Amino acid sequence: MEIRLENYATPQGKELLNGLRDRFVLADTACRDTVTEILEQVRTHGDDAVIKYTRKFDAPQLERDELQVTGEEFAGAAAAVDKKILETISFAAARIRAFHERELEDSWFTTREDGTITGRMVRPVDSAGLYVPGGQGGSTPLVSSVLMNGIPAAIAGVKRRVMMTPPDAEGKINPALLMAAKEIGITEVYKAGSAWAIAALAFGTKTIAPVDVIVGPGNQFVTEAKRQVMGRVRIDMIAGPSEVLIVADSTANPAYVAADMLAQAEHDPQALALLITTDASLAGDVVAQLEEQLPALSREDIARKALNDRGTILVVENVEQAVGLANEVAIEHLELQVKDPWKWLPKIKHAGAIFLGSHTPEAAGDYVAGPNHVLPTMGTARISSALGVETFVKKSSVISYSQEALFADADHIQRLAGLEGLSAHANSVAVRVKE
Q1: Which of 102, 144, 222, 240 falls between 20 and 30 A from 397, CA-CA?
Q2: Do residues 359 and 83 make contact, with C-beta atoms less than 8 angstroms apart?
Q3: pLDDT (0 to 100) of residue 435
Q4: Contact criterion met (CB below 8 Å) for 400 and 116
Q5: Is the pLDDT at 139 greater than 80, yes or no?
Q6: pLDDT band of 136, cuts 50, 70, 90
Q7: Which positions are annotated as active-site residues?
Q8: Does 29-235 carry CATH code 3.40.1440.60?
Q9: 37 vs 53, 120, 170, 196, CA distance in Å?
Q10: Which residues have CB under 8 Å from 428's CB, separation 6+?
Q11: Mind spelling out the 3-state secondary structure of the chain?
Q12: CATH 3.40.50.1980 occupies which residues in the chain?
């Protein structure tokens, strides 16, 4: 394994950090063009295009009437999933639900003595589409994605929640995914993946009604499809490869640090695992631990390539400098494995999620801690937040004037309208105050 190790004080260290600051990348031209064609095919041909692509890439024998998961398939899934797994799904769902219930916003109103009422009315969107990747042909069901995307939508009050996920070669969905959907009240599930699933959600087909919001992770084709339909529908975010940055001092356990770097590296060959440490000897110990732990991983090849290609260890002078650099990087997952992590929390400005202390692995946040694991990547934590209830609501302004209030504000309204050259705006007030 060849992981890059630099001292920040060197020109190489400065250059390395500059690259990390500017790592936002859109899909390549070939991907964009392919996705554009897929979207147009589904927009024009509907179910026929969805079935065509699904047969070509996933389930060669899938029929049109098999596109939607049936009640019988849900019943079969209930019998097929181990009871312990069902218990864990319920446990995780309860934790996620309890956290996101705190995010729900209320409508509000203010009044003035002249009778003016202004306010904001919070309402859910009517429908949301949840995309769930196939997970190695259905063999590794991403049940956490179902829970993390579906529960906030339910809390927001979205009446129709739809799940899209690619079938395996036999046209089946992993039963654990179906039980996760059932746990949170989703019964409308379709067997379609990649860009054609996103297209179906955005444009609608004869079988699949369109939705207002599309959320969920996916490969570059899913991400590019979401980018291209954004505006027609709301999306959660433009997501890149998963990433973690660990700030560690001499008190950190190198085995823990290495394990958490590997937990990100195993996601994808493009995953980003970073360590910024104040202790050069810890850096060497972490490299040794990475080599020791890698052979035991089920995805060793993926993790090794991610570390070889993008893994980075940066040695700095002190924790204050490390935290400052972490803010510049604006990472998806930020771990503070330092002596007093709570001391440094107020200094953190930009991170998707923050994990405090050596006993808080990022994996806890992925599954059962409660906060959402759908987080901004590629430096967008500078401007974006985790997926939450607010992703599924919109806010309308409410304004009510009394006659007295309009008379009091009339001159100001007409003056600003005149300044902007909008005489009809001014007249809409003038005709009322003449009475």
Answers
A1: 102
A2: no
A3: 66
A4: yes
A5: no
A6: confident
A7: 332-333
A8: no
A9: 12, 40, 26, 10
A10: none
A11: CCCEEEECCCHHHHHHHHHHHCCCCCCCHHHHHHHHHHHHHHHHHCHHHHHHHHHHHCCCCCCHHHCECCHHHHHHHHHHCCHHHHHHHHHHHHHHHHHHHHHCCCCEEEECCCCCEEEEEEEECCEEEEECCCCCCCCCCCHHHHHHHHHHHHHHCCCEEEEEECCCCCCCCCHHHHHHHHHCCCCEEEECCHHHHHHHHHHCCCCCCCCCEEECCCCHHHHHHHHHHECCEEECCCCCCCEEEEEECCCCCHHHHHHHHHHHHCCCCCCEEEEEECCHHHHHHHHHHHHHHHHHCCCHHHHHHHHHHHCEEEECCCHHHHHHHHHHHCEEEEEEECCCHHHHHHHCCCEEEEEECCCCCHHHHHHCCCCCCCCCCCCHHHCCCCCCHHHHEEEEEEEECCHHHHHHHHHHHHHHHHHCCCHHHHHHHHHHHCC
A12: 4-25+240-369, 29-235
Tokens read off for 385: 């937040």
Phi and psi torsions of 141, nearest 5° = -65, 125
Q: Which band of pLDDT confidence, cut at 50, 70 and 90, is reported for residue 168? A: very high
Cα-Cα end-to-end distance for the chain = 83
| Residue listed under structure tokens 């959402």 | 372
Asked if residues 220 and 247 have their Cβ atoms less than 8 Å apart, the reply is no
